[in-house]
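Hey, weird one. I pasted the PQ-loop-domain-containing protein sequence into the form twice and got a warning about non-standard characters only the second time. First submission, copied straight from the form history:
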Amino acid sequence: MNVTTVGQGPSLTAHEALSGVFGSISLASWIFLLVPQLIENYRQSSADGISLAFLTVWFIGDVTNLAGALWAQLVPTVIALAIYFCFADLILITQCVYYNVKNARKARKPSTRSEDSVEQPLLGRRDSSNVGLPGSHTRRRSSGGASVRRRRASSLPSLVENEADKRAWLKNALSIFGVCAVGAAGWALAWRTGVWVPTPDDGGAADAETPFGASILGYASAICYLGARIPQIIKNQKDRSCEGLSLLFFILSLLGNATYGAGILFHSLEKEYFLTNLPWLIGSLGTIIEDVIIFIQFRVFGSGETTSAVDA
């Protein structure tokens, strides 16, 4: 979740305009990033699907990013966004811990079934007394009903899954379009009002004054972002399920990283500027690869939404 700084510079060029638009879309992606997962956890009243290790490492990355921004005395906008990212992480982590503790307490509560177990054998004998009577055709009827249900179930899942997939794709596509529209409109408004101006194409000179400690924190932040998804990938593979995860959460992450990298590359391809931003580019590209792995897991294992719809 790194944000490019801007400053006074020359007149707007096509490359700078694209850099600004991509940077603004990346910013919008990060702002809305955690909302889908918060909604998914609330809808399921559970956070079993998401790895707390994933969120914790990501939070450490945001904290080091904030510390580096403060140390380097970056512009107030960058610092404010870094603070926002940390608070957003804390909200999601708090929600996950709350649901994990709540559901763990429910699981530890004694079941009332043990109290009824004394009466169940008597009821079972009373029902079994009818097995040898003419009512035996009830068993055939019930087994026939089961076979009918099985035949129906063989056709229903595909229909339900197709409908659910269409709705999910439509929802995600509209969400992505909305984020891109908000980002592009935000950049246009900022440019028209003079809030955003092109950055001079000499990024190496400005970055040379960055404190060494701030640079170290930047590298540490990039490493955390790159390694955060590994626990989630392992968890998905171990559970062989992506149930409880929001696909839109990872789509927005991919969009944010891709547009962030594009914003840097469209600004300049000069060697000094490229090397200065290389840690963040590596972090963004590496995270994109990890997101693609998670998308493959969604495809192979499923999210559990269509399954629950069929079972219902």
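That's the output from the first submission. The warning seems to come from a hidden character in my clipboard, not from the data itself. The two ends are 39 Å apart (CA to CA).
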